Amino acid sequence: MIGRSFTWSNRRRGDELIQERLDQFLVEVDWQQLYPNATVLRLLESGLDHSPLLLDSNHGGDIISEIEDKLKKALQNEESYWKDKSRVKWLKSDDQNTTFFHHKFRNRTRRNKIWQLTGSDGEVATSNAGIASVAESYFKDIFSSTCHENPEPLFTDFEPKVTAHMNHRLLGPVTMEEVKRATFNIHPQSAPGDNGHISAISSHSLQYLDLCRNKLQGNVPKSMFNLVNLTELCLSSKWSGSLYFSLFSKLQNLKALSLSGFNSLLLASETNVSYQFTNLLSLQLLQVDLTNISKILWKFPKLQTLVLSENKLEGNVPKWIHDIHSLERLKLSQNQLSSIGQFPWYQLKYLDLFNLLTDDNISFICNATSLQIVNLSHNKFKDTIPQCLANSPDLQDLDLPMNKFHGTLPSTFSRDLISLNPNGNQLEGHLPRSLSNCKDLIDLNLGNNQIEDTFPNWLQSLPYLEILVLQSNKLYGPIVSLKTKDMFPHLLIFDISSNHFSGQLPKVYIKSFQAMKSVVGVQTSFYYIKSSYVFITKEIEIEYHESMTATMKGLRTNFEKIPEFLVSIDLSSNRFEGEIPDDFGELHRLIGLNLSHNNLNGPVPHSLGNLSNLESLDLSSNMLTGKIPDELTNLISLEVLNLSSNHLEGTIPRGKQFDTFSNDSYEENMGLCGFPLSIQCNNNVPQQQYPSSEAEDKFGFGWKPVAIGYACGMVFGIGLGCCVFLNWKTSMACDHLWRQKN
Predict the structure, then answer these.
(1) Of 42, 109, 440, 472, which has the fewest beta carbons less than 10 angstroms from its beta carbon?
(2) Beta-sheet strands, E only, within 108-218
(3) What's the pLDDT at 110?
């Protein structure tokens, strides 16, 4: 099973946590032969105590992600439905509170239900019709009078509570300020409703309109295009019907426009007239059917931000985009464009072409001299990395993974560099020491290349470095630290696996990883490591996260966003030797530690039992000796343990997570015994296995007759060999004498 090995938990904490593998698939032998590569995948819990399992015959990652998304969305919709019904306002949804909301709704229903009413005659009514009759009679009595005299003289001595001024205000026309104040004073959850249509909008003074993240249906009301003072507009939903984009040109004061979810957005105008969006600064079109985008007649003289992601655009970049010389931010990611063509955007600061181009030419990038954020990942670029790009004075983020860049890294980089990620290319040569001048560097990911050099200890003084990935290169030699005061003070991810490093484990660095030690103030929810955040408007904003691929729990995992709690060390598949330092036990934030496939010896440190957040521990394929420390049973978060292929001995500890591990965690350790192995222990030593009496009965004799027969056979064989040798020697001597005589 791929993923976390447990399928059920009681969802408690500490010593009360219980996790089990209760769910499984049962298939026939014929089916298994038909699908030999079938796998069982554990999906997200999504609010359930049982984790859904998926039987995948071909291991289709896209289908699995789609199923998980649908399951998560269905559970969120259910939770949102019961939250609206419960009227609970102090607790947020999307936090797996469906059961709580349902319970609140049932209690509120019971509390608000009228079970019985007592009429004026003392009779108790319990049926719906009887209760309605009593209520109707009661209100008729209190709002009617049996007195036929004029009551006005009775109120002459009462002081009026509603003054003339108050009465004038109450009878006056409603102002927009009053509507705004009343609307914004309503709690967002005070008036929930089903999917619906939007009515006409007639407020000409409206400047900001946000209808995103709703469930609106039907057509966009034409009255919206009469809001002449509108400056920001966001529309996203399942709008039906056709909508001409040219209608938005009527809103001449519009500065920011965001549209998503339109099935039919007609880009060409009804009259083939060129429309000008005079004041528009930001335009975002997401998941919109942009047909004939290259034939449109639009003019954006002031446009600074253009986002056209996930629209299945094909061919070359349209000419009208090339004509926008004022662009500062351009995002065309996740389309199917073939070429950028000319590059006139000299003021460009942000460029995102993720998973976009089929062209292998990158020379166009040198025309932009003000770039700050560049994402060219998952394309087919084959050139060397341009030095002009690395030298861009304002460059902060350079994302180039999964291309075919070759040659060496640029010799110099911008001093403002925050993130450098050319993972998964064909780069070679040495690491440029100029990276030590990038004092703001947070993420350095050079993995999966062919770089041949020693460990870059000159990076240890970078004060903000959090991610250092050098895995799968040709780095070699011992890791020697420079004598400085603070070494890698903020490092959270240290991956130098699959290289040729040798010598002792870098104990000095391990002791200096201060950020891995303290758990005080650490966010427990999903906060992500990000290097850039561009705020355009309230509805159009670009949040740029770091990404990476890492081995977690024995599996290569892609992280499109890196959570801050992902703290790991991977030194596997090198040539390290010596003992494992006790200093690892001080890194309390670690959730993953991999020291496998080295030449480490000595005992497993008892201090590893202090790593209460550890979820994965891999010490396999070394030469470790001694017993497995009982302190490791304190690791209540441990999900994956691999101690196989060592020289460990003694009884395997029991309790907590250790009772959930299988034989695979301990195989090829001849001295280990106890659960889950089939070898029982005798005074902490594997009990000697002798042939059973059943085997003796089966063949009619035991091991003693076999030993006697073996000894006799050996004596007979030696004697027969001596006789053969003597006869051969005598024959050779006679033959020699006969030849001399003749």
Answers:
(1) 109
(2) 117-118, 124-125, 208-211
(3) 73
Phi-psi region of 570 (alpha: psi -120 to 50; beta: other; left: phi over 0): beta
Phi-psi region of 363 (alpha: psi -120 to 50; beta: other; left: phi over 0): alpha
The amino acid that residue 387 corresponds to is: Q
Closest C-alpha to 331, from 357, 351, 311: 351
Residue 704: Cβ within 10 Å count = 9
- What are the mean pLDDT values of the chain's consecutive 10-residue runs (742 residues total)? 67 72 77 75 61 67 63 70 61 58 68 84 88 88 75 75 80 74 61 52 76 74 84 78 81 89 69 77 83 74 88 81 88 81 81 75 81 89 89 91 92 92 94 93 94 94 92 94 84 94 94 85 50 49 61 63 80 95 93 95 94 92 94 90 94 88 91 88 64 40 52 61 55 52 48
Distances (CA, A) of 604 to 308, 327, 622: 54, 58, 11
pLDDT of residue 169: 77
Q: Is 79 buried (19+), middle (13-18) or exposed (0-12) by CB count in 10 A?
A: buried
- d(CA 350, CA 535) in angstroms, rounded, equals 12
Measured distance CA(385)–CA(403) in Å, rounded: 11
> CA 347 to CA 304: how far, in whole Å?
9
Angle, vertex CA 738, rays to CA 732 and CA 742, nearest 5: 145
Exposure string of 133-155, with b = 16+ CB inside 10 Å and e = fewer, is ebeeeeeeeeeeeeeeeeeeeee
What is the Cα–Cα distance from 580 to 587, expressed in whole angstroms? 14
Structure tokens, 382: 């084959």
Helix or strand run (H / E) with residue 713: helix 703-741
Q: How far is CA 478 from the centre of its chain?
A: 34
Domains of the chain: 8-104 (no CATH), 114-144 (no CATH), 202-291 (3.80.10.10)
Return the HEC string of 465-518: CCEEECCCCCCEEECCCCCCCCCCCCCCEEECCCCEEEEECCHHHHHHCHHHCC
The predicted structure's pLDDT at residue 347:
85
At residue 523, the pLDDT reads 46
User: Is residue 407 a contact partner of residue 385, using CB atoms and an 8 Å limit?
Assistant: yes
* CA dihedral sign, ordered 694, 696, 697, 698: positive
CA torsion sign for 120, 123, 127, 129 is: negative
Tokens of 561: 């966003």
Tell me the C-alpha distance between 659 and 653, whole Å.
9
β-strand pairing of 305-307 with 329-331? parallel
Return the structure tokens found at 507. Answer: 């104990």
Helix (H) or strand (E) holding 375: strand 373-375
Q: C-alpha angle 652/655/658, rounded to 5°? A: 60
What tokens appear for 151 in the block?
């009551």
Separate counts of helices (H) and strands (E) for the chain: 11, 46
Sheet strands (E) in 562-632: 562-563, 568-570, 575-578, 592-594, 599-602, 616-618, 623-626
pLDDT at 710: 56
CB 6 within 8 A of CB 20: yes
Side chain identity, residue 36: P
Q: Supply 60's token pair.
A: 């289709």
Q: Are 448 and 426 in contact (CB under 8 A)?
A: no
Residue-level pLDDT at 708:
58
Residue 492 near residue 567, CB atoms below 8 Å: yes
Tokens of 123: 């009779």
Q: At what angle do helices 61-86 and 98-112 cross, to 10 degrees?
A: 20
Q: Which of 663, 606, 615, 659 is nearest to 635 (CA)?
A: 615
Its pTM surpasses 0.85: no
